[in-house]
Every structure is written in C-alpha cells, then in structure tokens.
C-alpha cells in the first residue's frame, strides 16, 4: 500500500484505484489460484505488475467515465445534490438551517443576495444558477483536506461509489466470466467422470473453493448492491457535508 500511495494521491487511490482493483481482482486471484508459477515470489510479482498495469489504466478511465455517469445522474435527479438541498422545495434540510446558509453566502459571495422561498418559486432557474455559484464558492474554499477532513472523507466515499457504479457491468461481466472459467477448471480437475456426492466437494482444494465463493459474491455484489440508490445516498451525504461548511468557514 505504501508503494501505491507514492503513485497516487489519497483521493485517486481510494476513489479510483480501489474500484479498478475490484475490476481486475477476479482475474488476478484466478491466475494465482490455478497457475502454479504465479504462487512463487517472482510469479506473484509478475502477475501483480500485469494486473496493476491494467488496474492503473482502468483507474485513469475512472474519472472520465465517472463524470459522464455523474452528469447523467444529476440530470435525472434535477440537479447536483448540493443544489437540490439548498432549494426550499426540498425538505431534507430544514428551512431555518437553509436560511442560515443563505445569510452566510450573502455575506461572503459578492453579488449574492439572500434568496427567499417566494423568489425561488417565481424564478427557479435563476435561483438554481445562484445556488450553483454558491456551491462553486464552497468547493473552492474547502480544499484544505486537513481542515475540512470530514468533507474530504465524504467526497472520497461518493467518488468511490460513483466510479464503482460507472463500471458496474464491466465488473459483473469479469466476475461472471472468471467464475465460469474457474468452475470449469474445478469440474474438469476434480469432478469429471465421477458421480456427484457431497463428499466429492471436500476433495476440492480449499483455495479453489474459497475462490469460487468469493467470485460468486463479487458478481452478486456488482449486480444487486452497486446501484443508483447507493450512489445517490453517498452523493447527498457529501452535499449535506459540503453545505455544512457554511457554519465553519
């Protein structure tokens, strides 16, 4: 992990490299499990470097693909989570807190005036543009990762969920393919031409059984748990934390 930390900054490592690692992990584990030379120190290193090369490339694609998915989701939701949370017609943050945020923004941003519920209802597009401008101000003034570590933490968690979701189907396909290939190898090696019974299962090496279970769980996770609701939950958590900076800047 120390060597990886030298190659990537904290955000890239946790929000881009980790999702990429989960994509190539089924392939790497399958090779190490079934290919004997890969278990040696030299073989494992070659396997790791090969996998990391793919992982590094995939990580570089995470930001682009993640931003594309983000834009689609924001359009579907009606705006960025931070903007939606500032709207009076959104009740996830109480009115009194929103008014406190409005007072802060009007004092710190030039040409920004407090927006009332009536003004927002009368001109929602103009109000959203002002909200967007306010969010940009908050983003620029909360870049200190140490001082605003809670915001940074939520940003990483959101980035991880968004990027994982962006490659959901690729991850599912690779996990499923690895599972199928591994199952065939296990069958051909230990079960072909033998009558099936429960005792036969215990003749399979533990590492191969563990690989089968792990690949199955990875596939199910990609199919059912990596979804839009997960990304939305993390996005709004980040949005709330960013807006809360109005009380700390």
What attributes characterize this protein structure?
249 residues, elongated, mainly alpha, single chain
Structural account:
With 249 residues, the chain is mainly α. The chain is built from 12 helices and no strands.
**Proportion of beta-strand residues:** under 5%
Shape: elongated
Topology order in helix (H) and strand (E) letters: HHHHHHHHHHHH
**Classification by helices and strands:** mainly alpha
* Secondary structure: helix percent: over 70%
How large, in whole angstroms, is the Cα Rg?
24 Å
Mean pLDDT: 89
Our count of helices gives: 12
Count of distinct strands = 0
Largest sheet, described in full?
Answer: none
Query: Spans of 5+ residues with little confidence (pLDDT < 50)?
Result: none
C-alpha termini separation: 33 Å
Task: Compile the SSE list and pairings.
Blueprint: H1 2-7, H2 10-34, H3 41-77, H4 81-86, H5 95-108, H6 117-122, H7 124-140, H8 149-166, H9 168-191, H10 198-201, H11 206-225, H12 228-243
Helix pairs in contact: 2-3, 2-8, 2-9, 2-11, 3-8, 8-12, 9-11
Briefly say what this structure is.
The protein is mostly helical and 249 residues long.
């Amino acid at each position: 992990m120390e060597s990886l930390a030298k190659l990537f900054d904290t955000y890239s490592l946790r929000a881009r490299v980790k999702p990429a690692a989960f994509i190539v992990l089924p392939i790497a584990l399958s090779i190490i499990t079934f290919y004997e030379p890969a278990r040696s120190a030299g073989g494992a290193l070659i396997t790791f470097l090969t996998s990391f090369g793919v992982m590094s490339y995939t990580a570089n694609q995470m930001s682009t693909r993640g931003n594309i998915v983000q834009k689609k989701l924001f359009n579907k939701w009606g705006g960025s989570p931070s903007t939606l949370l500032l709207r009076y017609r959104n009740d996830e943050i109480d009115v009194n807190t929103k008014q406190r945020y409005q007072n802060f923004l009007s004092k710190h941003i030039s040409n920004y005036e407090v927006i009332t519920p009536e003004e927002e209802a009368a001109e929602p597009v103009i109000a959203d543009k002002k909200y967007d401008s306010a969010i940009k101000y908050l983003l620029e003034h909360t870049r200190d990762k140490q001082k605003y570590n809670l915001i940074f933490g939520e940003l990483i968690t959101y980035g991880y969920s968004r990027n994982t979701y962006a490659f959901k189907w690729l991850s599912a396909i690779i996990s499923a393919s690895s599972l199928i290939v591994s199952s065939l190898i296990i069958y051909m090696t230990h079960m072909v031409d033998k009558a099936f019974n429960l005792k036969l299962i215990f003749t399979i090496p533990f590492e191969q059984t563990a690989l089968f279970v792990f690949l199955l769980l990875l596939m199910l996770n990609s199919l059912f748990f990596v979804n839009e609701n997960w990304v939305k939950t993390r996005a709004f958590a980040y949005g709330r934390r960013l807006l809360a900076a109005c009380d700390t800047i």
